[in-house]
Amino acid sequence: MAISLDEVRHVAKLARLDLDEPEMMSLQTELNALIGHFSDIQAVDFGGINPKLHASNLTNVWAEDVPRASFKRELALKNAPMSKAGLFLVPMIIED
Amino acid sequence: MSITSLTAVEIAAKLRSKEVSAVEVTTAFLDRIDTEDSKYGAYLAVDRDRALAEAAAAQIRLETGDASLLTGVPVAIKDNMSTEGIETTCASKILKGYVPPFDATVVEKLKAQGAVILGKTNLDEFAMGSSTETSAYKLAHNPWDVTRTPGGSSGGSAAAVAADLAPVSLGSDTGGSIRLPASFTGTVGYKPTYGRCSRYGLVAFASSLDQIGPITKTVEDAAILAEATTGHDERDATSNPAPPVSARELKNGSLKGLKMAFPREMYGEGTDPEVQKTIETSLEALRREGATVDEISIPSIPLGVTTYYIIAPAEASSNLARFDGVRYGPRSQGQGHIDVVAKTRAEGFGHEVKARIMIGTYALSAGYYDAFYLRAQQVRVMMTQQFLDAFQSYDLIVSPTAPVVAFKLGDLSQDPMQMKMLDYCTIPANMGGMPGISIPCGFAHGLPVGLQFMGAPMEDERMLQAAFCAEQLFAVSPSRPNL
To answer: Which of residues 234-263 of B touch A (CB under 8 A)?
Structure first.
C-alpha cells in the first residue's frame, strides 16, 4: 500500500493545507513510511470484535436546556484577527 | 537547601511554620527562572506581576487560616491549557498572541486552592512529539545533560520540575506525553484514569486519549496535585462522575502480597539492554519486598504504536480544523474563504502537525475509513480487553516507561519511526483509559530510567499507593541532577 503524489494533493485539499511542492513530496515519503506499518493491523483476526471509539464506559450526558452566562461579546472577539460591528469577519465565501 | 529544590509538601510545611512567606517562595522561583531558564528552555511565558499578586493573596489566606495544602505553592502549566489573561500558544505559531478569556478547569481548581501559576511551559507543537523538538518557539533541554532532550511532549513541564524552576507542574498525556518526559528527567509523571481529570480548557489533540496529570519530584506531590485537579466537571462530557482522586490513604499501602504482572511484550524491539538491566533490578527489589511479579503475555501490545498513529491523527485532523484564522490567531492573505484558510494553516502549523493532520485526514477519507480507522478501533477494543483480563488476576501491571534513556537533541529528528517507538510502553494506558505512573527506578548510561505502573480503570489510588512504596524502596540516588 502506498500513497501517490496526487493522493497527497487531494488529502491536502481536504485538510485545507496550501502546501508547496517540496513539502508535498516530503510528506509523501513520511506518510508512506507510516502507512507501510498500517499493514500490521490488516492481518489481525478480530473474531467479530465491535469497534468502539472510546475507552470510557460513559453513555450520553444530558444537560438541562437553560440559558447561562457566557463571555461578553468584546471578550469573545478579542482574539479575532478581524472583526466588524461586533461580529467575526469571515473571508468571503460567496462571490458577488 | 534552597527553597527552589523543595517539594510541594515541604514548601507547604515551611509556609505553615512561617519560615517563609508565599511571596518569598514565588519570588525565589521567578528569580531562578530569570537567571537559569535560558539553559533549559522550560518556559514559553512567565507573568511575574500576576504570579506575585497571586502569592500575596495566598499569604493572606495562610494568615487567616483559609488555606489548603497547595495555598502559596507555585505550579507550572503546560502551554496547551487555557490560562485567563496569559498567552496560550500550544507552542504553535498559529496561536501566537492568543490570550484565552477563560481558565481551564484544572487551572480554575488550582487557583481556588490558592496555588500560584508561575507560567506556561514548553511542549511539542500541539503536544505532537516525544522530545519537545517540534515546538515552534525553542528547544527544551534535559537538566541531567543539556545536550539531550527532556522528552515530550510535556518536556517543558518535566524540565521545569527537574531543574528546580517549579516544584510541581501539569502536563498532558495522549500517548505517553507525561510519563515519557518524567522517565527522561528522573521525575514522577502520573496520567489519571481517562475521565477523572476534566479536559475543559485543554486544547484538544486526540479527545478520546488526552488526559491531564501532574509531573512532580515525589509520588506524594503527584497524589496531592491530582486530588486538587480531578473530579467531575459538567463542562467535559467525558468527565467521570466519580469523586476526585484521593491522596488520603496514599501512605497506608504495602508491597507485600501485591500481585503484579510484567507483560513480556513490553521489551519491544529497540529496548536498550542497559535500561532492561535497571528494570530487572527494580523488579527484583519489588519481589524482595513481598510483591509477586509474574511474566505474562499481552499479545496486542506490539500493535499499539500503529493503532495510535491512526486514531490520534484521525481525531487531531478533526480537532485542529478549528484553526482557520477566523476566531483567533493570525490570518494569511488569500483569495476567498478556502484559499485564506488553507494559507493560514500552511503558514501557521509546523511540519509535524501538518504530517499528522494529513495522516488523519487520509485514514478517515473515503475508501480507507474501514481499512484503517475502524480496524484501529477494533485493535483498541481487543487491547483494552486483554489488559482488563490481566487485571482480573493482577493488581498492577509493571513495565519500563520508555525503551531508552534521554537521547541527544537532533538524534531522532531524521528518524520519525524510531521517535514514534518511544511511546511503545505508554500507549496502552491511553488506549484502555487506564491510569499510569512513571517513577524513577535507577540509571542507565548515567541517565534516569523510569518504571511504569498501570492500574485497572478507576484504581488510581491503589496504583499510587504501590508507586509510593516503590519510590521509598528504590530511593534513587542521586535523586536530582547536578544543576
So the answer is: 234, 237-238, 240
